[in-house]
Specification:
228 residues; signal; 11-stranded mixed β-barrel; mainly beta; DUF2490 domain-containing protein; DUF2490; globular; 1 helix
């Protein structure tokens, strides 16, 4: 187990160094929450994210998102109807920002494979109202994989490897500006380490590479996942 953790740490450090060479490495600080109402199929979930073009100080995005969840009986799937408010900053010294309101619908289901591989599939459809742009939509698919390394379950004191890959597809190319967008919006690939303080509290530290048609960028990610 120690060799596995050391190897993963070297990969993360190497990825970070490579991102620094691009002089574009940023950092995202994230809080995710989830709550199931007592004796109910309904709940809430959402996240608060402070994203920086650099490690801290140069705002990339401030994202506030929350939604109502519904879990059908006898089904391992979670549906969400939510709203997000996003403030996007410009790279560098400019303090200019663009605001966005976003409505989204999501379906998420999880399955444990082979006794210790925790997989989650998330499908999300977004309706986006971006300042100075026409109404636009976007489709997203994310595959998450968590693998505990010091025990077989994600119970208290578990150390785990966290990976995901997310694909973004625009619903249209004409957004009312002089420059149309591509149908392919972006792809995100993540590798990190997590620690389960207790089943309702998990911490993660990792590195994510984000690519669009025109650019690629590395991001450090620090996240706290909270169920209450």
């Amino acid at each position: 187990m120690r060799k596995l953790l050391l190897s993963l740490g070297i990969v993360l450090m190497s990825s970070t160094i490579n991102a620094q060479d691009q002089s574009q490495m940023g950092a995202w600080y994230m809080y995710f929450y989830k709550h199931q109402f007592k004796n109910s199929q309904f709940g809430i979930q959402g996240d608060l994210q402070y994203r920086n073009w650099d490690i801290i100080g140069d705002l990339e995005q401030l994202l506030i998102r929350s939604g109502i969840t519904f879990t059908p009986k006898n089904a391992d799937i979670l549906f969400t109807l939510g709203y997000g408010n996003i403030t996007t900053g410009q790279f560098g010294d400019s303090n200019a920002t663009v605001s966005e309101s976003r409505i989204y619908q999501e379906a998420m289901f999880s399955k444990k494979i082979g006794g210790r591989f925790y997989t989650t599939h998330r499908f999300r459809y977004e309706q986006r109202f971006v300042e100075n742009q026409d109404f636009r939509t976007r489709y997203r698919y994310n595959l998450f994989l968590n693998i505990p390394v010091n025990q077989n379950t994600l119970d208290a004191k578990a150390v785990y490897i966290a990976l995901y890959n997310e694909l973004f597809i625009n619903g249209q190319t004409d957004i009312g500006t002089d420059t149309p967008v591509q149908l392919f919006d972006r792809n995100r690939t993540y590798l990190g380490m997590g620690y389960v303080l207790k089943p309702s509290m998990k911490f993660q530290l990792g590195w994510m590479n984000q690519k669009t048609v025109n650019w690629g960028k590395g991001q450090l990610q620090f996240s706290f996942h909270h169920s209450f």
